[in-house]
Design a protein that fits this description.
The chain is α+β, with helices and mostly antiparallel strands. The protein is 33% helix and 16% strand. Strands 6, 9, 10, 11, 12 and 13 form a six-stranded mixed β-sheet that branches. A five-stranded antiparallel β-sheet has the order 7-14-15-8-16. Strands 1-2-3 form a three-stranded antiparallel β-sheet, with no helix packed on it. It starts with a helix and ends in a 6-residue tail after the last helix.
Length: 517
Amino acid sequence: MAEFDAIDALLAGAGQEVRLPPAQERRRLREGLSLSRAQLAQALGVGASTVGGWEAGRDPSGDVREKYGYFLEGARTKLDAVAAAAAPADAPGPAADSLAEEDQASDTDNGDADTGVLAEPRPCVLCGQPARHQVEGFPQHLDPAECGTAAPVPAQPEKPAPRPASRQPARAGEPGRAASGVKVVPVGRRVQAASDTPDLIGSAVAAALAEHAGDVEAATAALIKRAIPDAMALLDHTRKGGRYDVVAHPWLPDILRKQSARGADQVWEARPKWSRPELPAGEHEITALDINGAYLSALKTHLPIGQLEHSTGDHHDRRRAGLHLITPPVWDHGAYLPDPIGNRDEPGPLWVTEPTLRLLLRVSGPKYGLCDPPEIHESWTSGATEGLLEKFRIVLKDARDRAIAEGDEVTLEYVKAMYSKFVSTLGESNYNRELYRTDWMHLVRSQAFANLWWKAHRAYDEGLMVVRAMGTDELHVAGDWHAVFPEGRGVTEVKVKDVYTVGTDQDPALQRPESPS
């Protein structure tokens, strides 16, 4: 029976291949421990894209399969132990972490309750009498009958702020000039429904076409010319019944004042202008993606309501928004991801916006751990809300979607002009005298840049090679991008700008001319 000895030895030494959980479970276990793909890949001695492939359905083999299985089993045991210790005996098990993409809308920060109970009574912002509740961080009476302004004050139409004949900037040292307080209306006040808003966009388009006898080019040119006042009229309609009266012409701190007639102020918007320094060996097909409606999506951001107030200290209040002087952290991932702070050669502190700060705080947190937290030195902030322009944004988005679906290029160009010109004239512009909020202009732009950064991170996290990120809407990637981003013209979709091939003998930044964003 000696001829069977070799077979017996083979059977004795053979081991059963390590069984791995399904792909979705693998990702849930990793993210449940707040570990990035890069961290796990480093521990296993593989690339982050390899881990991404395993979480997409491919299976490892050999020794690395055994190590990966050991990690997954240990992760499951640890998560089960944490859940058992934290949950009541009759509570359901821990839910799987959401796999939703951290996108434009990206940085929502919805952790703050809309209404809360105060530990000690504070003066109501409406009547000045002690109140035990707060709404969006502002003390007030929830019951209008308890509020000192409810009974004796008859309802009167609010007077619109007069339009100044010419811009007269407030002088330094006059923080109270040309500013009004933040008004929080009682909770019981009726909020205007979307159906209550007249179709100002459709009416304007129909009138322009009628005025120009159906001439599409002439009607489009006329609509674009009146885009700014029409956008402000639309904003007024969508703000009816809103919770706040916005300070439209606040006093501006010096950091928001231009250093010269043609110069810039001191705020850094973190505009990306990044190209991957090196590519792996071989030729690569690169797709240049165009991000649709970048500024439209960026209207959903935390905006300060009132006049900016100064504070010092390394502390961030999520209920407020504005501008912050920070020392940014060192970014060690420039070989494959752009720096969230953008391209900045000078070291040291700089003034950044709320979206940039929230992006840095998020990527430095336990979920991502990509850098150290930024150090905050001082801030100019006000009570804030993320929904200040939300109805305005939704009306524009819906009109844009309908125009695309119906092939209505006149409405599409009109809507694009409305939101792009609205953002560009929020500062001290002679074209828009109704709203001087330079801080808003910087915040909306920075939110668009932050949204692009999150798209680049998502592409990397899903196993694509990120080659370039520029401005608000340009992202170059290699790999199956259709599996990551839906293609189309909607604001949640992307379009293809270009497809090109690059090798490894040149810097990718030298192989492609910079495209305008």
